[in-house]
Amino acid sequence: MPLSALALVLAAALLHALWNLAAKRSGASGVLFVFGCSALSAVLWAPLALGWHAQALAGLPFEVWTAVGASAVIHVLYFLTLLRAYELADLSVVYPVARGTGPLLAALAAVALLGETLSAMALAGLLMIVAGTFTIAGGASVLRGPISAATLSGLGWGLLTGVLIAAYTINDGRAVRVLGVPPLLFDWLGITCRAVLLAPLAWLRRARLGEVLRSDWRPMLVVALLSPAAYILVLAAMTLAPVSLVAPARELSLLIATLFGARLLGEPDMWRRLSGALLIACGVLALSLSA
Q1: 72, 198, 212, 231: which sits with the fewest CB atoms below 10 Å from its CB?
Q2: What does the longest C-alpha to C-alpha distance in the chain come to?
Q3: 91-113 and 270-289 are packed helices; what angle lies between their axes, rounded to 10 degrees?
Q4: Shortest CA distance to 25 belongs to which of 263, 276, 270?
């Protein structure tokens, strides 16, 4: 992986962990929070997206709009699933399982659907990421059982979130890598479509909308600014390196999120979860050296 792509992924990892921490600490969930984040993102990022890519917007083919629509739907489901997971389980369980399974599935799908290839070192890196995710989720105790209700919930919701991560990674990676859509423009269009999709549901819950905006505007602002910034950096990295390498390399954010969960949220089993995060970091290093 080129150093320029790796640098973009590293910056994205920090931003991604920060907005997930904000979402977890807020305790917010549901359609209204996701709508608020999406609508705020669409407004805040509009000047950059339209200022830099107004001409490109006018000539986008139907295939690109299809990819934008698919991205919007998958991201809505992803955010709703992730926030529900954070309601029920620890950040340091949900986040690693979601972020570990998502890139694994995305890398395999990139090989199957986009014609990419994996070297032996890249495959070893993927296996280390899986092993690290398994360690963070509970290690051998997961197999022996019984598993605590919180861990079981985190594993289930994390896995579902991971499937959605893989789906939007392949869809969006194809849009910027194969169809050539500028990353900033593509992400802004997807965010705007998410806000439009959620607007009718938010209207039905309008009696609570003002209350949610007043109580959660700070985490909404953090997510609205940092989530697109992180993802735009990832999409930019996908224009420089294969999706099958960029997707797993994003998991450097696990190291940061695991520390946040242990230090700032007081979650247990710090050393086991940190050792799993270290395995994932070694996997990322193997991926970065594989191409």
Answers
A1: 212
A2: 58
A3: 20
A4: 263
